[in-house]
Design goal:
Blueprint (H helix, E strand, L loop, with lengths): L1 E8 L6 E6 L5 H14 L7 E2 L9 E9 L2 E8 L8 H13 L1
Parallel strand pairs: 3-5
Antiparallel strand pairs: 1-2, 1-4, 4-5
Pfam family, one: Emfourin
InterPro entries: Emfourin
């Protein structure tokens, strides 16, 4: 499984990008990623999740997930972030900060 993660926006407008691949992660992280993707229902989410009340200076997240020949892209605004997706986003942000 591979996920490309991009965070844009925010007050400073700084973009963060990282790609995480279970083939190159330490075993404990490699086993965590599929569990987070499944708990988020990522492959069942729509491509765009937007807030009915857009707010300036909020983050926007773009996730591109590839697994077993399937690919799914989800772009979600911070203000509309589903609770099921939050643990995956936080995990990916922690990975991005380590790099």
């Amino acid at each position: 499984m591979r996920i490309s993660f991009e965070r844009t926006g925010g007050f400073a407008g700084i973009t963060k990008k990282t790609t995480v691949d279970t083939d190159t992660l330490p075993p404990n992280e490699a086993s965590t990623l599929p569990l987070l993707v499944e708990a988020a229902g990522l492959f069942r989410l729509p491509e765009h999740i937007t807030s009915p009340n857009p707010q300036s200076d909020r983050f926007q997240y773009k996730l591109t997930v590839e697994n077993n020949g399937k690919q799914h892209i989800v772009t979600v605004s911070e203000a509309a972030l589903p609770g099921t997706l939050r643990p995956l986003i936080e995990w990916l942000q922690n990975i991005a900060q380590k790099r």
